[in-house]
Amino acid sequence: MNQQEFVLILFQVVVLVLAFSVHESAHAYVAMRLGDPTAYMLGRVTLNPVKHLDPLGSVLVPLISLVYGGWLIGWAKPCPVTTRNFHHLRRDDILVSLAGPASNLAMATVALVLLIVFKHVGGVPAIGAAMMMANHVPGIDTGGLPLFPLAMLLYYGVTINLLLFIFNLIPVPPLDGSHVLRHFLPYRAEQVYDRIGMYGLIVIFLFGGRWIFGTFYYPLLNVFNGLLGSL
Q1: Could you give the CA distance from residue 92 to residue 64 in angstroms, rounded to a whole number?
Q2: For residues 201 and 29, what is the distance between their CA atoms, to the nearest angstrom?
Q3: One of 11, 20, 22, 24 is an active-site residue; which one?
Q4: Which residues contact 77 (CB under 8 A, 6 or more apart)?
Q5: Residue range(s) defining the domain that contains residue 63
Q6: Cβ neighbours, 10 Å, residue 207
Q7: How far apart are the C-alpha atoms of 188 and 164, rounded to whole Å?
Q8: How many CB atoms lie within 10 A of CB 201?
Q9: Is 5 a catalytic residue?
Q10: Could you please report the per-residue DSSP string of the chain?
């Protein structure tokens, strides 16, 4: 691994840690506003990554996957929720579950807006280099681009947050999408769903990545790239 590859991995880990922190604190904040103080009392309504990160899933696994697989995988500590504190169980649990993915979509949008502003103040070469780097185009020279690190961080802010947005909406336990779907299942089906769901997640990791990327992630990323190119 050369120095450039190491720096790119470091950038992705930094963005991923921030994305995890915002995602979990969004769950905790919405739960608090809807009547459940559990996460708030545990100090989870904060952007302090120490409160949210799992040493294995938030640091070690992402680093290993980036170094050996070239793609990002990982998780943070789940946000504790006591659903009996909600006044409207189904509605409130769905809102809390969707708060995490919504926060990642919001972060991707903010990063896109900042990139557009950056583009109009002379950042086009740096943004172009960042996009090519993110797509693993070899031979990119960033020596004459002093603003490249900022462009790279912002573009990873788009790509990583969009990936987390899509991934967490998959309706397979323990992902956020499963907390939405289970409220619409009959009781017996819900019990079976909870038992077999984790195996479904393993199947997705092993075989479903290409389908998820091709069907949902890349089309959404293309929309963001199109907006960046046209605005």
Answers
A1: 36
A2: 27
A3: 24
A4: 24, 52, 53, 54
A5: 3-230
A6: 9
A7: 30
A8: 16
A9: no
A10: --HHHHHHHHHHHHHHHHHHHHHHHHHHHHHHHTT--HHHHTT-SS--GGGTB-IIIIIIHHHHHHHHHSS----BPPPP--GGG-SSHHHHHHHHHHHHHHHHHHHHHHHHHHHHHHIIIIIHHHHHHHHHHHTT-S----TT-TTHHHHHHHHHHHHHHHHHHHHHTSSSTTSHHHHHHGGGS-HHHHHHHHHHHHHHHHHIIIIIHHHHIIIIIHHHHHHHHHHHHH-
Q: Using one digit for the tens of pLDDT, what is the confidence trace for 74-124?
A: 778 889 999 999 999 999 999 999 999 999 999 999 999 999 999 999 999
The CA distances from residue 136 to 8, 132, 139, 201, in Å, are 11, 6, 9, 27
Q: Report how many domains make up the chain.
A: 1
Amino acid (1-letter code) at residue 75: W
State which amino acid sits at residue 146: P
Give me the residue label for tokens 């952007």.
47
Is the separation of the CB atoms in 49 and 23 below 8 Å?
no
pLDDT tens-digit map of 145-187 = 888 999 999 999 999 999 999 989 988 888 899 989 988 989 8
Indicate the angle between helix axes 218-230 and 89-118, nearest 10 degrees.
40
pLDDT of 71 above 70: no
